[in-house]
UniProtKB/TrEMBL annotation:
Protein name as annotated: 5-formyltetrahydrofolate cyclo-ligase
Enzyme class: ligase
Coiled coil: none
Record GO biological process: folic acid-containing compound biosynthetic process; tetrahydrofolate interconversion
Record flagged with keyword Disulfide bond: no
InterPro entries in the record: FTHF_cligase, FTHF_cligase-like_sf, NagB/RpiA_transferase-like
Molecular function per GO: 5-formyltetrahydrofolate cyclo-ligase activity; ATP binding; metal ion binding
Residues involved in substrate binding: 17, 22
Pfam assignment, any one: 5-FTHF_cyc-lig
Amino acid sequence: MAQEPEWQNAQSIATTVSNLFEVPTKPIIERALSEGKQVYLPKTMPHRQMAFLPFSSYDDLVVSAYGIPEPVYQADLVERQPDLVLVPGVAFSTSDRYRVGFGGGYYDRFLAQYQGKTVALVPSIMEFADSDWPVEEFDMQIDKLITLD
């Protein structure tokens, strides 16, 4: 990931704290911080909205109702346009760059207003040639899929 131009050109990175079946994000977070990049993590909000807030320490995160460690909400720290968003999912189509997320539409709602770069790190088991799932009008394409072996 660090060799990708999207990463190299970004001063701010938005990612998640991964769960057991996602690409591990701890090394990504640590790399970004070591390179002087600002890291943002998502906070789920009412009405299936999401806000990205600065990561300061794993000790400062609280576990959401979904079991995901999140930053505490602070309105004046919300970042609406990080340089790069690493988008999670459970399935990704290489032909059209659509994904299946976790069912809440949080990322699609955020990405509909987002103007920066999006990248997904895709384990080969989650990679599909085509969208073998319904693509809805509100689904957002990812700019770049990076297949991991």
